[in-house]
Write a structure and sequence with these properties.
The complex is a heterodimer. Chain A has helices spanning 3-10, 21-44, 49-53, 58-81, 89-111, 116-121, 125-147, 155-175, 183-209. Chain A is an all-alpha fold. In chain A, helix 2 runs parallel beside helix 8 (155-175). The longest helix of chain A is centred in the C-terminal third of the chain and has 27 residues, at 183-209. Chain B has helices at 2-42, 46-70, 78-91, 103-120, 151-157, 160-171, 176-183, 187-207. The relative contact order of chain B is 0.11. Classes of the chains: A mainly alpha, B mainly alpha. The interface between A and B is large, with 31 and 53 residues.
């Protein structure tokens, strides 16, 4: 086929395009994914009683605050990565810094403590390690679906950030159940598992997001 | 002798530099025009959209011929790449952010499609060097050849509904509502079918036999 002919086809009946569609789709994926993760948490492990009562909210707020900030920064980053050109290097740096800060806080708490076993493993590290990736699955699928509507050109990074946001959504849902209020536990299990989700996203991004 | 060579070299350097400045000026003169055509196209102006695709095709052809030459490939394949990128520019135009420059957006798509092409044709050097986005506008080539894409073959290979939608809306130029009335499909079904048909065009170029 000649290119003239193709251009004729493409420019016959050009539909107007509304701006902001991609952002809406991504936000929808985050909200629905997060809600699904939360419902899955309620259906499987259930929410922690102290949180339902409203007692011991301090550390809970820290867990929610950190995961929520990762979700928000990750969402902003995805609205950039979903388009060609924009790379969002600054936001990647912000995310790395936030991981570093949590790791340092965890390490400091570890040094200052006598009973290291409990603050590393908590009481439910196995549940935590199983739940966060499980809860992250639906958000990850929805995010990949949303990203495929765009045109990401850095597929590895886009996949990684999709995995990170999904992991953070899973971790936020798990925080409603999590009975372990220790900084090293947060750094190792939450941090480690969210990073694992990001790694899986980077691994499969190029295959899932190709267009 | 050495002195003469030195002077000669310096002369060539100056010459290259001058050409580079000329290219940059060319970019500056062409960018606002392309961008206003794109924005008009996004608002549904078919004539502007057509003019944009025509202008881009000339530049993309030159760019891909140069790139293919650099990788020791047959420049004949440039036409396939040009068409692939034109389809991508059309079907992914909602990923263009109106507040940004257009040329880098097109260049990012062209570069992405070229590295995808290299991967497909199993060339070991898959890293396409990042040049300035202006590299794109430095080329000019309006000599068209036929691409590998066979429209009749494509229309025969897609589902009857999709074929009908493409036939009415894109080849005969009926409006979406007219096509909907004539085919008995809903308007949104026609839009989806047209979108699907254009995607089939792109995958057909992608999956074609290597020459």
């Amino acid at each position: 086929m000649r290119t003239d002919k193709l251009i004729d086809i493409l420019s016959t009946n050009v539909e107007p395009v509304k701006p902001g569609l991609l952002e809406k789709t991504l936000a929808w994926a985050v909200v629905v994914g997060g809600t699904t993760a939360f419902c899955l948490m309620l259906a499987t492990v259930g929410a922690r009683r102290e949180i339902l009562n409203g007692s011991e909210l301090g550390f809970f707020a820290l867990k929610i605050g950190w995961t929520l900030s990762l979700i928000l920064i990750g969402y902003l980053l995805l609205t950039k990565l979903i388009r060609p050109v924009q790379t969002g290097r600054k936001l990647v740096a912000v995310i790395s810094f936030s991981f570093l800060a949590v790791a340092v806080a965890g390490a400091v708490a570890l040094i200052g403590s006598a009973d290291r076993r409990i603050i590393i493993l908590g009481t439910q590290w196995v549940t935590c390690a199983l739940c966060i990736p499980l809860f992250a699955t639906v958000p990850f699928i929805l995010l990949i679906w949303a990203l495929r509507k765009g045109a990401p050109t850095n597929l590895k990074r886009t996949g990684a950030i999709a995995g990170l946001v999904a992991g953070a959504l899973g971790a936020m849902a798990y925080a409603f159940h999590c009975p372990d209020d220790f900084l090293p536990f947060l750094a190792i299990w939450y941090g480690g598992l969210i990073a694992l989700c990001a790694f899986i996203g980077a691994k499969f991004g190029p295959r899932l997001l190709r267009w | 002798m050495a002195a003469i060579r030195k002077v000669h070299r310096r002369g060539r350097f100056k010459c290259n530099q001058l050409r580079r400045i000329a290219e940059l000026m060319d970019v500056r003169s062409i960018e606002p025009e392309l961008r206003s055509l794109m924005v008009a196209g996004l608002e549904g102006d078919a004539a502007a959209h057509k003019m944009l695709l025509e202008k881009l095709s000339v530049q993309l052809r030159g760019y891909f011929k140069a790139q293919l030459g650099r990788y020791g490939r047959d420049p004949v394949e440039a036409e396939d790449l040009v068409q692939e990128v034109l389809i991508a520019v059309h079907t992914r135009r909602h990923t263009y952010d109106r507040s940004q420059l257009l040329t880098p957006w097109v260049y990012a798509i062209a570069r992405y499609k070229f590295s995808d092409y290299l991967r497909r044709s199993k060339i070991s050097r898959t890293d396409v060097p990042i040049e300035d986005a202006e590299a794109l506008t430095a080329y000019n080539d309006s000599a068209q050849v036929e691409s590998n894409l066979d429209l009749d073959k494509l229309l025969a290979g897609i589902s009857p509904k999709t074929r009908q939608a493409i036939q009415y809306v894109k080849l005969e130029g009926l409006s979406v509502s007219e096509a909907a009335a004539r085919s008995g499909m809903s308007e949104s079904a026609v839009k989806v079918a047209v979108h699907r048909g254009l995607k089939a065009l792109a995958t057909m170029i992608t999956k074609k036999e290597p020459r």
